[in-house]
Amino acid sequence: MNHDITTFKRALLGLSFGALASVAGPSAFAQSPEPAFSVGPRFQESSGESIYRATCQGCHMAQGQGAKGAGAYPALASNPRLASPEYPLYVVINGQKGMPAFGKMLSDEQIASVVVYARTHFGNQYPDAIVAENVKKLRP
To answer: Whole-model pTM above 0.90?
Structure first.
């Protein structure tokens, strides 16, 4: 009898997956233009927005509003601490408190791009240029 239940569960599971695939259609399995997950120890995204969406918004939230729960994730929205470009560059490179260091996972260009994105979005208006050379000077 136990064998019949196991066979029934497997058949039901197979039918469920088949129904899901037919409802979702082939577009559910299509590749996105930017990788959803980076391959290897370095991030693949290149624009500030795509890096933010793939990496930062998990803690700082989609609109940069931050969050509190299992940890405290500071808001980037309307944040005066972003006025000086060195501060967010340093934090992204080296980490701070619960935030991991991303210096080994992001290139100088990627770090400059994501910091510029945070400093010019979410109600922040700090448009002064940040380039890869600014990042390189702050690396250990």
So the answer is: no
